[in-house]
Amino acid sequence: MAGGENSKGAILGLIIGTVVAIAGGFGFGAVLLKRPEPGAAAPAAATEAKKPEREVRTLAPIIANLGNPPEVFVRLQAALVFEPNTPDSNALATKVGDDIVTYLRTVSLTEIQGPTGYQYLREDLKKRAILLGGGKIQDFLITAFVVE
Question: Both 68 and 139 in a single domain?
């Protein structure tokens, strides 16, 4: 009889635990699926859709030889992040691309080797782009970087 009472208690505990878990899951799901009022969410979404936060412009691929050794070439693809509605973004992108070529011709291979060299190069190019942009460029993103 003692073994029968233990198994009945274990089954009863299992059933109670299952019911509590189902109720907790249902309550949590109800909180997650609670729908906001239709009138409150529509104006907020409409204002967000009207003004873009930033404009991304991809630069043409840049190919330049390094300063040391001069027979080593670098191919760089990058993108500039502008403030929204920047009127002269094409001219600024061209200006930044030309500056990158000039800068890469002064860099030696040992300066860009390894992860820290790449990080320093990326930071330098970002600073130069932001300075050339006069506050209109928010970020500089390297999408591809190949040393040949």
Answer: yes
